[in-house]
Amino acid sequence: MSEAPIISIQNLKKYFKVYRKKPGLLGSIQSLWSREYEEVKAVDDVSFEIYPGEIVGFIGQNGAGKTTTLKVLSGLLYPTSGEVSVLGFNPWDRKPDFQRQFALVMGQKNQLWWDLPAMESFLLNKAIYEVPDAEFDKTLDKLVELLDVKDIINVQVRKLSLGQRMKCELIAALLHSPKVLFLDEPTIGLDVVMQKVLRDFIKAYNQEFKATIILTSHYMGDVKELCKRAIVIDHGQKIFDGDLQDIIDQFARNKILSLIMNDKINQKQLEKYGQLKEFEYPKATLLVPRAKAAKIAGQLLTDFSVADVNIEEPTIDAIIRELFLSQKKVH
Amino acid sequence: MRRYFALIQLWFIKALEYRAELVVWAILTLLNTVILLAIWISVFRGQTSVNGYQVGQIMQYFLLVTVINGVTASHFEGWRSQEVREGKIDHYLTKPISYPLQVLLADIGNRLFYLTLILPITFLVYYVFSLSFNLGTVAFTPLVIAQFIFLLGVGYLIEFSCAMIAVLLSFWFEGAEGLEHFKWITISLFSGFMIPLEFMPGWLRSAVDILPLKYMYAIPIQVIQQRVTLRITDFMYIFFFLAVIFFFQRWLWQKATAKYTSSG
Description:
Number of domains of chain B: 1
Strand order of the largest sheet of chain A: 5-6-7-3-8-9
Distance between the termini of chain A: 34 Å
CATH topology of the largest domain in chain A: Rossmann fold
Order of helices and strands of chain A: EHEEHEHEHHHEHEHEEHEHEEHEH
Oligomer: heterodimer
CATH superfamily of the largest domain in chain A: P-loop containing nucleotide triphosphate hydrolases
Helix content of chain A: 25-40%
Structural class of chain B: mainly alpha
Number of helices of chain B: 11
Order of helices and strands of chain B: HHEEHHHHHHHHH
Strand content of chain A: 25-35%
Distance between the termini of chain B: 33 Å
Strand content of chain B: under 5%
Largest sheet of chain B: 2 strands, antiparallel
Helix content of chain B: over 70%
Mean pLDDT of chain A: 89
Strand order of the largest sheet of chain B: 1-2
Number of strands of chain A: 13
Structural class of chain A: alpha/beta
Largest sheet of chain A: 6 strands, mixed
Low-confidence stretches of chain A: none
Low-confidence stretches of chain B: none
Largest interface: A-B, 32 and 26 residues
Number of strands of chain B: 2
Shape of chain B: globular
């Protein structure tokens, strides 16, 4: 890419000292004078660069270091070591010029005022970010229309459903038209319909405002639908950075062969072609090595009377799961 | 400036949302003030003057305590510390206004709300008691008013700073509830909130004279009652003390931001 990166992380490390309490009353008494601390490497030597307008999926299991990285990028946490630049700023300097250009949305933490309608929080953000009246009206109208929340912005936040709240959280975060958006599990706890609405919105926002977005999510659907590029992190370390398709090429060892048989056959007859995952006449599903998938399909068509054959890639969820399982063995 | 006003205003709006709480606070203020005055009337029964105070003056003293308390008493350290502990201040930290300033503006919003609640109640109590007692008149000269308002500001800054220091310490400690009680008891005992300085035993009075807390309640009331007027040494002491706690807060805040773990 010829453009300069908008986000750059070099050898980022963030370690926490965690107190391990011994269980029970005795443990509590002992902790009065002696406490055991353990160092947790939440982020351990991670480097990457993100360019303007990209949507990057940040994938990892619980505790992998995704949220910690986002918190460092947004200036909430000081890194233990490493260099970080976002929009040309050191995030933890917390310069107002930097803070006016990004937004952080956390699925598990609210910025909306619980006992007031979302509109009050919008007006507060308008004042805090010094958004001119005309620009505020225009942006708010557009966001309200895109997310279809006209009827709820004057209702107390605590009376809203999780999905409605999340929509309002997004509006509150975007009113100042940030150039960089950190989305930490924005679809957590939402039903599939609402997940789709938010994904469509994020995609539309990225296209319209050319915003750079980092998205962390447990739902691979979010990442698949929104991100061309993914960064996979495990135990605080980056294990993959590239196109989602490359994850499939690199880590998917098998393909899925789905068969519909004409004649009744023995289960054992199929097992010699690959790993039999399902067998319920007339349907059978085999896992076969990627490189040999076409050849094995041809053999099956020759050896049996097959009504239909289908070769598929495994789901991205399954590949990632496999990737993490292989990493677990390493650790 | 508009963004600061917006924050103050939103906290005021938020306070107005809790109608039941509003009624409870109004009743509490009324009850507290009336019972306090009744106790002092009982103390003065059969005596025209105690420690240089007549009954009307002591009633005036505690009515002023109620007003000053409404303006200055900040009590946010408990829930703010909990927010720090639970990582709930993330959104404050990403906004282009510093966290301590957001806390200050929020508290000013709250103080303004309670002041609008307390003032009419205090005037009502003053009026009712003035029907039976000579509460005296106060000569509101420009000098007295200026000194009183200045001391209200000083009192507020001392209360706020102590509360803010407790919140900032909670970046290291697990809670600030103990510090909140410590602050409350110290101010109650050494500021003239509980009793006028003239009623204190000699050793306590000596301690109060050294400490700056007397500028929160005792001195502003004495100014209004024209028992004292501020001297240049008072101003010097006040500015020195405020500068010390201001820089201490700044230093703590710089250390605290590096310490923050953003739990959750």
